[in-house]
């Protein structure tokens, strides 16, 4: 098949997908559902748990999991023998994320932010009511946080999530709060809609969000919005560290440094758009 034939096939696939004429493949849909389910579980799942949660026959779940296992998309915990996502999926996701223009333009500035603060730097985007981590830079010599590129970040108890929630139109925010429930990680976690709405108001007024040990005890996180050239929020940036690294006295200075970084990235996006 030459390049013209390949282009024709790709065009046909795109057209059929848009028109909805071609049926989805059920077993593929189930495989994707299994991977999405494993992605949101902390400790993995057993075969019966997968079958029960997705309401599919155990035999079907077994065949799909075995195929994913053989292809390294799924692995099993050596300790619990539960199924968890494999590194191949993270590798593919990382390769895709490396192609994101936003991440490419932001990385040099995020690295300078890490060097200037000595803190772990994150960047996340909002995708279908979830915060997805697309960049992470740990300071050299540090233990690092239990985060990774592609991880779904909590909306209600992280600096990144709060910033992205605050960027939503009021109608969309209210709808999201009605359909979502938020898990409690510790006594500091905000889980009520009333308190979360008040917190989002503070984020909008202050221009930054603070996760004050709300997801993990002993860890603070500051998040700020990253604006696209058209004025919309393109992503959220955060820095995270211990209570000794992020104090009540230095928060304002860190926020100012983060704001300068966000401004540099916005300018890089604008320049890239103008030259494109």
Task: Please outline the helices and strands.
Elements lengths: L2 H17 L6 H14 L7 H8 L3 H13 L3 E3 L6 E3 L1 H12 L2 H17 L2 E7 L4 E7 L14 E2 L5 H8 L3 H10 L13 H14 L2 E4 L6 E9 L5 E10 L8 H25 L1
Antiparallel strand pairs: 1-2, 3-4, 3-8, 4-5, 6-7, 7-8
What does this structure look like?
This protein has 276 residues and is α+β, with helices and mostly antiparallel strands. It folds into 2 domains: 3-85, Arc Repressor Mutant, subunit A, CATH 1.10.10; 92-275, 2-Layer Sandwich (Beta-Lactamase), CATH 3.30.450.40. It is built from 10 helices and 8 strands. The chain has helices spanning 3-19, 26-39, 47-54, 58-70, 87-98, 101-117, 159-166, 170-179, 193-206, 251-275; strands at residues 74-76, 83-85, 120-126, 131-137, 152-153, 209-212, 219-227, 233-242. The strands form 2 sheets. Strands 5-4-3-8-7-6 form a 6-stranded antiparallel beta sheet, with helices on both faces. It has a two-stranded antiparallel ribbon with strand order 1-2. Strand 3 (120-126) and strand 4 (131-137) form a beta hairpin. Helix 3 packs across helix 4 and helix 7 (159-166) crosses helix 9 (193-206). The chain is globular and about 55 Å long. The protein starts with a helix and ends with a helix. Residues 1-17 have low confidence and may be disordered.
């Amino acid at each position: 098949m030459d390049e013209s034939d390949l282009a024709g096939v790709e065009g046909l696939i795109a057209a059929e997908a848009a028109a909805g004429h071609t049926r989805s493949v059920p077993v593929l849909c189930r495989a994707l559902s299994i991977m999405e389910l494993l992605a949101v579980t902390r400790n993995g799942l057993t075969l019966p748990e997968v079958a029960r949660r997705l309401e599919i026959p155990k035999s079907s779940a077994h065949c799909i999991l075995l195929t994913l296992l053989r292809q390294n998309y799924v692995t099993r915990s050596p300790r619990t023998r539960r199924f968890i996502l494999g590194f191949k999926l993270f590798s593919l996701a990382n390769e895709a994320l490396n192609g994101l223009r936003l991440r490419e333009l932001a990385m040099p500035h995020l690295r300078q932010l890490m060097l200037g603060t000595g803190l772990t730097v994150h960047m996340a985007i909002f995708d279908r009511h979830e915060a997805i981590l697309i960049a992470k830079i740990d300071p050299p010599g540090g233990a690092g946080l239990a985060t990774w590129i592609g991880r779904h970040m909590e909306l209600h108890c992280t600096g990144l999530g709060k910033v992205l929630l605050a960027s939503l139109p009021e109608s969309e925010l209210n709808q999201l709060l009605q359909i979502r429930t938020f898990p409690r990680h510790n006594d500091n976690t905000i889980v009520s809609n009333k308190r979360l709405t008040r917190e989002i108001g503070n984020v909008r007024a202050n221009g930054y969000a603070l996760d004050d040990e709300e997801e993990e005890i002993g860890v603070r996180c500051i998040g700020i919005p990253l604006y696209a050239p058209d004025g919309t929020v393109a992503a959220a940036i955060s820095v995270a560290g211990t209570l000794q690294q992020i104090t009540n006295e230095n928060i304002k200075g860190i926020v100012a440094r983060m704001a300068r970084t966000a401004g540099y990235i916005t300018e890089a996006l604008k320049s890239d758009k103008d030259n494109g």
